[in-house]
């Protein structure tokens, strides 16, 4: 039904549609299903934590797999496919932030600033939100997904040797932010 709603029935043959999908993914449908079931939960968690919005994370997850299926990729092993998916997702999240920043700028020209965030929000979440998107992505991929430096470099488009330094700086900035927050609540650091 959906296929008829999208495609003109006389324009495409069933075999052509299946060939297109298989060619786009460079894998059989059953292999793709297994790959999706293995990767999607971790990828969705990464996107949700990075963008901070569950509904948006679902949209970006779908768009990530859509772009993956449409890409003309050479044959690659599953870890490289996974890193490529994280790279697509990261790019889509960054695109969203850029678009949101532009929209916020134009909205703020016409409206007063919105109320501040809840001051009792979880310390770690607040500290992470103060990091740059790339820093959050680095920390997430390293410590939640367990990516090594090569996989992180591939997913984020960095030089592999730079990842070690960037991770160090991101950890240091996160520790500083958490220490500053603890000091603001009267705790000793």
How does this structure look, described?
By secondary structure, the chain is mostly helical. It contains 9 helices and no strands. α5 packs across α8. The longest helix has 33 residues. The N terminus is likely disordered.
Topology:
Layout (H helix, E strand, L loop, with lengths): L1 H5 L7 H12 L3 H23 L2 H17 L7 H33 L12 H7 L3 H12 L4 H8 L3 H25 L5
Helix pairs in contact: 3-4, 3-5, 3-7, 4-5, 5-8, 6-9, 7-9, 8-9
Q: Which labels suit this protein?
A:
disordered N terminus, Butyryl-CoA Dehydrogenase, subunit A, domain 3, mainly alpha, 189 residues
Q: Quick gist of this model?
A:
This protein has 189 residues and is mostly helical. The chain has a single domain, classed as Butyryl-CoA Dehydrogenase, subunit A, domain 3.
Order of helices and strands: HHHHHHHHH
Q: CATH class, please?
A: Mainly Alpha
Total DSSP helices: 9
Helix amount, in percent?
over 70%
Question: What overall form do the CA principal axes indicate?
Answer: globular
Low-confidence stretches: 1-13, 19-25, 109-117
Mean pLDDT: 76
Structural class: mainly alpha
CA radius of gyration:
20 Å
Range of strand content: under 5%
| Number of strand elements | 0
């Amino acid at each position: 039904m959906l296929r008829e709603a999208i495609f003109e029935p006389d324009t495409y043959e069933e075999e052509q549609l299946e060939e297109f999908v298989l060619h786009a993914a460079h894998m059989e449908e059953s292999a793709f299903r297994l790959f999706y079931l293995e990767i999607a939960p971790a990828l969705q968690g990464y996107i949700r934590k990075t963008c901070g919005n569950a509904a948006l994370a679902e949209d970006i997850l779908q768009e990530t797999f859509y772009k993956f299926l449409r890409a003309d990729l050479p044959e690659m092993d599953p870890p490289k496919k996974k890193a490529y998916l994280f790279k697509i997702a990261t790019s889509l999240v960054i695109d969203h932030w850029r678009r949101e920043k532009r929209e916020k700028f134009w909205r703020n020209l016409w409206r007063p600033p919105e109320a501040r965030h809840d001051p009792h929000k979880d310390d770690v979440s607040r500290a992470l939100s103060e990091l740059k998107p790339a820093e959050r992505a680095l920390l997430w991929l390293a410590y939640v997904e367990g990516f090594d430096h090569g996989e992180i470099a591939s997913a984020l488009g960095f030089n592999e040797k730079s990842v070690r330094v960037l991770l160090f700086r991101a950890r240091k900035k996160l520790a500083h932010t958490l220490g500053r927050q603890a000091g603001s609540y009267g705790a000793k650091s």
